[in-house]
TrEMBL record:
PANTHER family: F-BOX ONLY PROTEIN 3, POLYMERASE DELTA-INTERACTING PROTEIN 2. Signal peptide: none annotated. Residues 3-128 form the ApaG domain. PROSITE patterns: APAG. It comes from Flavobacterium aurantiibacter. SUPFAM superfamilies: ApaG-like. This is Co2+/Mg2+ efflux protein ApaG. One of its GO terms (biological process) is error-free translesion synthesis.
């Protein structure tokens, strides 16, 4: 698990390999990631959008931007935690993701960026 705290918001990431799948006649490696967001600040915040850079071992990169996470824009009061699970497909058994969440602080009405630390995606069978 990797963790990082930005402006009182703690992000933790846990990953797992889910298997191989064929999509459009090509083999893909499926990965799952669970993200936990904990508000250690004194203010209520809301996650508004996300940005991901997804890399595989074949030097392919995909960028994903979107509103919220899994169709939600969670509000976290001080001390609250929100977790969600999502996934991605890679063309290789190894890769990584990094990104950030755009959030708003309800007390100051300021937008801020919370970094999601880089995390590795690796298929168990490919590890030595």
């Amino acid at each position: 698990m990797v963790t990082q705290i930005t402006q009182g918001i703690k992000i933790s990431v846990r990953t797992s390999f889910e298997g191989t799948y064929y999509k459009n006649g090509r083999l893909h490696y499926a990965f799952c990631y669970e993200i936990s967001i904990e508000n250690h600040s004194k203010d209520s915040v809301q996650l508004m959008s996300r940005h991901w850079d997804i890399f595989d071992a074949l030097q392919n990169m995909e960028t994903v931007d979107g509103e919220g996470v899994i169709g939600k824009k969670p509000v976290l009061k001080p001390g609250e935690r929100y977790s969600y699970t999502s996934g991605c497909l890679l063309a290789s058994p190894f890769g990584a993701m990094r990104g950030y969440f755009n959030m708003i602080n309800f007390t100051t009405t300021r937008n801020f960026r919370v970094i999601v630390p880089s995390f590795k995606l690796s298929a168990d069978f490919a590890l030595n």
